[in-house]
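User: Predict the complex.
Assistant: Input components as received:
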Amino acid sequence: MTKHRTTRRGFLKTTIATGGALAAAGTARAAGDPAITEVQPWAQYLGDGVDARPYGTPSEYEAHVVRRNVPWLTADPVSSVNFTPLHELDGIITPNGLCFERHHAGIAELDPAAYRLMINGLVDRELVFTLDDLMRFPRENHVYFLECAANTGMEWRGAQLNGCQFTHGMIHNVMYTGIKLGHILAEAGVKTEGKWLLAEGADASAMTRSIPMEKALDDCLVAFKMNGEALRPEQGYPVRLVVPGWEGNMWVKWLRRLEIGDQPWHHREETSKYTDLLADGKARRFTWEMDAKSVITNPSPQAPIGHGPGPTVLTGVAWSGRGTIPRVDVSLDGGANWQAARMDGPSLPKSMHRFYYEFDWDGSPLLLQSRAHDSTGYVQPTKDALRAVRGENSIYHNNGIQTWAINEEGVAENVEVS
Amino acid sequence: MTKHRTTRRGFLKTTIATGGALAAAGTARAAGDPAITEVQPWAQYLGDGVDARPYGTPSEYEAHVVRRNVPWLTADPVSSVNFTPLHELDGIITPNGLCFERHHAGIAELDPAAYRLMINGLVDRELVFTLDDLMRFPRENHVYFLECAANTGMEWRGAQLNGCQFTHGMIHNVMYTGIKLGHILAEAGVKTEGKWLLAEGADASAMTRSIPMEKALDDCLVAFKMNGEALRPEQGYPVRLVVPGWEGNMWVKWLRRLEIGDQPWHHREETSKYTDLLADGKARRFTWEMDAKSVITNPSPQAPIGHGPGPTVLTGVAWSGRGTIPRVDVSLDGGANWQAARMDGPSLPKSMHRFYYEFDWDGSPLLLQSRAHDSTGYVQPTKDALRAVRGENSIYHNNGIQTWAINEEGVAENVEVS
């Protein structure tokens, strides 16, 4: 399969060489195509005006582009998850309507006028803020990925789910507007012995997580906008915690209370859940940071190659909780040979990155893989390498390399290679 | 008003000094606030689950955050405009549902399966591409603003509209995924004498604009995604032209044809419309580039200061068709004194930039202004300076400095100062 090996110069050559193929396809269609020879219907009517949709919605032809849940996964949809359709997206921004959801007691519908944020515990002044109070603090804007610790969790024991939406779709990437948590804590005055923060949600699950003060003061945000507009209800409207690079469960939604303490609280979501059960029965706790990871989104099981041999675009996303992604490698032969993908779009820390690899498909079967390198030098491992260290008991923190098998028809399947 | 003058060091001092005021507000509320002393309703029920909204929508409490049209502005909503609610947004991304609309024959609802892009004229090979054909070209991702040439056009003859949504809301800022126009033109092979491009839309208005080949080959994109998902119908689904930094009318939606010629076509939208009529009756043509511009979005007429004296956040957006915005100045006294605002978020060429200015409001009236500097050294002019050169006949390309008068109650009004 070394014929797929492509260098930077090789890519440019490929683009030029494949011109003929694309042009030929175009020309062939030009002759008797009714889409060209007849006046198309949409050129014959006046469409909806500017008063039709004060808040816009996608085209009816995109009705299949939705978050999808897996009904058998949980006992009830109020404590469950749905998945971002990564195979239908491009670039690095996840539109708000397609950001995956994870609830523990359903979506709380808070009245912003009644919203309060309380700070108590080891502080000089216990405080309560309204939303208007929060609007008086300096704001920042950052694009961050949010990944559930259980993303790809079903794959620990082998290839399970046929589509990157289901294997990798518990992630989204959004520009947040918020206040540095440190600004708010400074108002209350954290006592010297205050080393931990408990963040609590206002929903019926009263989600609580312990966060070390060092992280709280580093880059955490108390956020109220996503991609420019108010947080969506399912993402914590009107206020959520943003814990950049760390597992999604810590990004407490509907944030109602911040308590300062001198040690962690060891609540349910950091003991029986969101800990990594190893082969010997011990559990790793406080494994907050999300390791570097990537996945090829196209082609993939939900998005087969829809054309025959010739110029083909492979694309995917990569991210790391520790920084940026300067490089992603792609293999077409199950990891025997690797080529550097083309990174594209803004490279921002703790944000999704987009990669592309353009190649001339010869129509033979492929075993597609991607491998992320992050700015600390860490390289995404194989699933087998992860299993050798952690066993198969956990459902969390699986950042192993994903493989899609492509057959002669361009159909993709989730497989394991070793 | 020199008491408002703030340096970088001054800003930090202000933040610390105002801590007391914010903390005091918080403490006062803590005592008998039912939002604290009673269990809030949303902690007492299980909300909607992950199956409730496959494609998400905003909170019902945000129902006022919508695009708004001005019914008296045009004879019919099918050839009209609505406006982005800039005063409700933060950061730099405009969510797709709130991107302003401008149609000339309403929204064409194209079937993507029947979509075709034709290239004809001075080319080696006339070509027709399907959407699937286009997906085989290399893609790029860029965040660009799109501003209508008529944005702020009503203000040429003095303060007219009370709100930045209406004075400045014919702009949005989106991450596009698309193909460099140059890649597609290379497939057809542009002949040596091909110096101009005609872009034509598929809607009933058959919008057409002439674009010089130099721009077409520089940074124009044939785009199919906005903020990650498919283009919205009102933004040209499935394919639009992206002409970075140039007036929005050239960003042809529902793109159906690219013709190569040796001179411009002088169609309606580049002669009787989208030209700048000067005081002497002459019209400037081909004034494509959007000059550096800024506006304060909060406080503003639709978003008054909702609190009394004390810590206050001023924010706004700035952009330039010629590059980045390294600096925005803010005046609280109608241009007598200027302070550098704090720039925040990614600084990307031909993209919106976000600025903030935090200050301690003493409760006295203010005359707020912002002034953008772009990366070429150009400085946003006053409206009077523009009028001195261009008169008041045009409705296009008004990038003059905007003034909001704030009274003792924090209420804002659109005013002119000279």
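Helices of chain B lie at 8-17, 19-30, 34-37, 131-134, 164-168, 181-188, 213-218, 383-390.
Let me know if you want any component modeled separately.
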